[in-house]
Design brief:
By secondary structure, this protein is α+β, with helices and mostly antiparallel strands. The protein has one domain (5-102): Alpha-Beta Plaits. It is built from two helices and four strands, in the order E-H-E-E-H-E. It has a four-stranded antiparallel β-sheet, with helices on one face. The longest helix is centred in the last third of the chain and has 17 residues, at 67-83. The two termini are 13 Å apart. 16% of the residues are buried.
Length: 105
């Protein structure tokens, strides 16, 4: 399975602060940089500014080491991206749901 790809869908508790137009693009760019080569985000649903809720992200992950590695690289990329966001107005909470499937190429 040298070229295995997985679809990883995560739902994560998220708290956002005031609306900042550049945040989504900035975070998407950083998130993509933290993923392994051959991986790419395929969708997301954000939480409205100034609220707490459940955000989602879907990623096609290149992870020949298996399903656990696929989940790990996406969760790690998400954590690293959130940690790089300035200030305290954006926070990640618990993962509410994780679905990992072998991608059909």
């Amino acid at each position: 399975m040298d070229d295995a790809h997985y679809l990883v869908d995560l739902a994560v508790e998220t708290t956002t602060g005031e609306y900042e137009p550049s945040r989504a693009g900035r975070m998407a760019t950083r998130f993509a940089k933290h993923l392994p080569e051959g991986s790419q985000p395929v969708g997301h649903r954000a939480v409205p500014p100034g609220t707490t809720g459940v955000a989602t992200i879907s990623v096609r992950v290149s992870a020949p080491a298996g399903i656990a590695r696929a989940l790990h690289v996406v969760a790690t990329a998400l954590e690293m991206t959130a940690a790089e966001e300035p200030g305290e107005d954006f926070r990640l909470g618990e993962i509410r749901r994780a679905v990992i499937e072998l991608a059909e190429d």
